[in-house]
Amino acid sequence: MRQIHLAQVDSTNSYLRRRLAEEPDLEEYTVITATDQTAGRGQPGHRWEATAGQNLTMTLLLHPGDLMEDGGTLFDLNILTALAVRQALLRELPPGAEVKVKWPNDLLVGGRKICGILIENTFSSSRLDASVVGIGVNVLQEHFGEGYPTPPTSIAIEQRRLGVTPLTGDGWHDRLVYEILEALEEWRSRPVSRLRAEYHRSLFGRGEVARFARPSGETFYGMIEGVRPDGRILIRELPTGRRSLYAFREVSMVLTASLNLGL
């Protein structure tokens, strides 16, 4: 592993993409971290905002050809990353914390967002060449602004909520990076079928009635039945029982911000 830590950067994903353009042979598991990210990026149309020095903002380089050769898809890279971060979070959070994966690539604790993932792929002659994997974890931050589509939380908030003294200092930073990379290598060694099975076991809202919204603003109630290998989510709409497949940005789960954080 090669780690490059920056005091300030526009975006760790953008920085690594620039480095990769300059150094095409950049070694796998090169990790970029930053104390302050001034233009953090989430999914298209969204920004990732984090208080400087209080959260983990990291991006790592992968060459996941082995995953593709094992019958994997691009979405399996999302699954791999989400499971690795989930495992690391479970090591940091107090016993009793429930970490779920919200389709397609967020991690939630008690229905509140603690982590976002942004993966950007580059191709060479239609073959997956490299993946720039951005991971943002809320760690020490306990105060957030308004207007988040999914109410936020952090490791410190969840520790306080469960009666544990919150993290302090900066010793958590390198430990969390190491735990994520260790879990990533562990999950990467397993068959794609096992990754998909664990993803479904960890899928937020699966088998539960929830409210969903289409881009038009229309809302409906339904139940998540699963996620296909290509990343499309299967929802059984209620009360009709009609089963429909949706790609990313074709539907979203509506979560309320009026959740009790226990502070």
Describe this structure in words.
The strands form two sheets. This protein has a seven-stranded mixed beta sheet with strand order 1-2-3-7-6-5-4, with helices on both faces. Strands 11-10-9-8-12 form a five-stranded antiparallel beta sheet, with no helix packed on it. The longest helix is centred in the N-terminal third of the chain and has 19 residues. The chain is built from six helices and twelve strands. The protein has 263 residues and is of the alpha+beta class.
Detail the topology: elements first, then pairings:
Elements: E1 2-9, H1 12-22, E2 30-37, E3 55-62, H2 65-69, H3 74-92, E4 99-102, E5 106-109, E6 112-124, E7 127-138, H4 155-161, H5 171-188, H6 192-201, E8 209-213, E9 219-227, E10 233-238, E11 243-246, E12 252-253
Parallel strand pairs: 1-2
Antiparallel strand pairs: 2-3, 3-7, 4-5, 5-6, 6-7, 8-9, 8-12, 9-10, 10-11
Helix pairs in contact: 3-5, 3-6
Question: Which shape, going by the Cα principal axes?
Answer: globular
**Estimated radius of gyration:** 18 Å
- The total of beta strands comes to 12
Classify the secondary structure makeup into a structural class.
Answer: alpha+beta
Report mean pLDDT, rounded to a whole number: 91
Query: Which bin fits the share of residues in helices?
Result: 25-40%
The number of distinct helices, counting runs of at least 4 residues, comes to 6
Biggest sheet strand line-up: 1-2-3-7-6-5-4
Order of helices and strands: EHEEHHEEEEHHHEEEEE
